Amino acid sequence: MAYVNAVKAVHEIRDPIHVFVKLDAQERAVVDSRFFQRLRHIHQLALTYLVYPGATHKRFEHSLGVMELAGRVFDVITNPDNVTDEIRKQLDPLKNASEADRSRWRRTLRLAALCHDIGHLPFSHAAEKELLPEGWDHERLSYEVIMHPDMQAIWREMSLYPEDIAKLALGRKKGERLGLEFSPWEEILSEIIVGDAFGVDRMDYLLRDSHHLGVAYGRFDHYRLIDTLRILPKREQGSEDRPPVPVLGVEEGGLQSAEALLLARYFMYSQVYFHPVRRIYDIHLKDFLTEWLPNGQFPTDLDKLVTLTDNEVLSGLLASARKGCRKGHVHAKRIRERQHFKVLYERNPTDVERNEDAGAAVYRAAVEKFGAEHVRHDSYRQKGGVFDFPVLRRNGEVVSALALSDTLKNLPLVSVDYVFVSRDKYDVACRWLKREHDRIIEKGVEEEDDETATEGGSADQADR
């Protein structure tokens, strides 16, 4: 009979990527909160399911997966057998923390991972930048949710500090914009979630998106990668007179798994996330929301935002598509009837060699010829591109990953540039572009030269 009244200490949630995600009763209180439950109704990849029908998964299960992976990474990198004396001296929680402190940081990390997307707008990234007031994005909304009185009551029950959770969920780059200050230890923990090279957010979405879309591009050996992660010293370029700082790195035996992760990212971006039809649906959705939302923007008031999910937007979109008098009718109809704009022009190496902004030149010319209402432009160029992290060699030496990996040195950058036109202009636009292509590309170069001369004199002068 004792079993009848026992409170279940660990809850298991089935998951297609990690088999089981386990959480205790206190962590479940966060999952049961109204803010986290809202993520059940936010598609992970917006309208991608119109291109890849399997892409119906939500931010809810992704956030659970990120929490699961964050806990695994924490256990590996804080295992005393995996920490050197040098690192232990630099990171106080590894040197002096009690078991209770260690457990508190582990729980803080897992809950930060759980909440890292809790402020996402309907349809995730599809229209975030243009449809929020200046200075707002989903990370700032996540911060506001974590600091909300409803969530603070949960954190108090667990004796956790909401600022700690917010810092680890946002990472240093975003957190410092909100006035948060990071210790070296907090930087390491936030890197576990949002790090460019080994962030578990990226690990989970690559694996999960790949699984649901039915593509193989996003797969890599995350078991091997996580087991070989270590906190290692890294000397920043140009700071030879200062001691190296502790960052996440990898044992030499995990280097190929790290390469595979970064290649998976490249292929998923180039083959899936920047698929032209997927991108034009994002643009049509943004056009619809701009007309449909009050004042053309999402609310930043959390009590209003929590009632707004993909469901409410889809309901409004379908209603608008049916009646010509409704706001956003034209754009909603394009989405519902799959009458999206078609690709007129796509960036290619030959054109880029002649004119780096070939896509913009074609877009300007197409707008002039057919009118802005019939033309859309989508351009993205990946910034940075070199992933450098420390690698612990088998002889105990710590070196830059770039010293061991030609793959990392030559990792291609993602770059896309599309010009789309409406279907009723598509045939005539294709004939027009075939006829005018060379003139448009060359004219674009001439216009650039004219603008440079007008704004700042010659290129040589600008360089000085």
Helicity range: 40-55%
Strand order of the largest sheet: 3-4-7-8
Our Rg estimate from Cα atoms comes to 25 Å
What's the helix count? Answer: 22
Which blocks of ≥5 consecutive residues have pLDDT under 50?
452-464
- Look at the helices and sheets and give the structural class: alpha+beta
Shape: globular
Number of strands: 9
Mean pLDDT: 91
The major sheet is characterized as: 4 strands, mixed
Q: What share of residues are in beta strands?
A: 5-15%
- What is the rounded distance between the termini? 84 Å
Describe this structure as you would to a colleague.
This protein has 464 residues and is of the alpha+beta class. The protein is 53% helix and 11% strand. It contains 22 helices and nine strands. It has helices spanning 25-31, 34-37, 59-77, 85-90, 92-96, 99-114, 138-146, 149-157, 162-177, 184-194, 200-213, 222-227, 255-273, 276-292, 302-305, 310-322, 329-336, 349-354, 358-370, 406-409, 423-456, 459-463, and strands at 10-15, 19-24, 229-234, 245-251, 342-346, 375-381, 390-392, 398-400, 415-421. The strands form three sheets. A four-stranded mixed beta sheet has the order 3-4-7-8. It has a three-stranded antiparallel beta sheet with strand order 5-9-6, sandwiched between helices. Helix 3 (59-77) runs antiparallel to helix 6 (99-114) and helix 9 packs across helix 10 (184-194). The radius of gyration is 25 Å and the shape is globular. The termini are far apart.
